[in-house]
Amino acid sequence: MQLIKFDPLRDVQTIEDEIESMLRDGWSWSPAIAPLFALDMYEEDNILVTEVALPQFKKDEIKVRVDSGGVEIAATHSSKDDQKKGAARRYYRQESRQDYWRRINLPPEAEWAAASGEFKDGMLTIKIPLNPSETTKSVDIK
Fold this sequence. Notes:
By secondary structure, the protein is mostly beta strands. It has a domain at 37-80 and 96-133: Immunoglobulin-like (Sandwich). It has 1 helix and 7 strands; from the N terminus they run αβββββββ. Strands 1-2-7-6 form a 4-stranded antiparallel sheet, with no helix packed on it. A hairpin with a 2-residue loop joins strand 3 and strand 4. The two termini are 33 Å apart.
């Protein structure tokens, strides 16, 4: 039988994830039409890797900010030219526009100042080195 370390904040994290899901998916009475883009975050060789599939977006439509609290990804895409010459366009409904916003908390050992990012073939990849130092310390009892 595998032992699982007790985490008193596990339930708080679960509630936070559910609230974030409600805010992301919307509170409307109709089902969400906008696509929800998959986000994966994993550790590989002391590097925290975040991957977000953003199909149809262009590199210049994506903004990524990283600070000690987390990673913020914002993107806006419009497939039609909104600035037609000589014509004032007033939309009543616009489904060709896509917006994406997400903020993910970073672990304390993340060296956020050394973050790097790449956008290739619709996949945004953000890499943040992790400090391999231990986050806990054994204490000798006298």
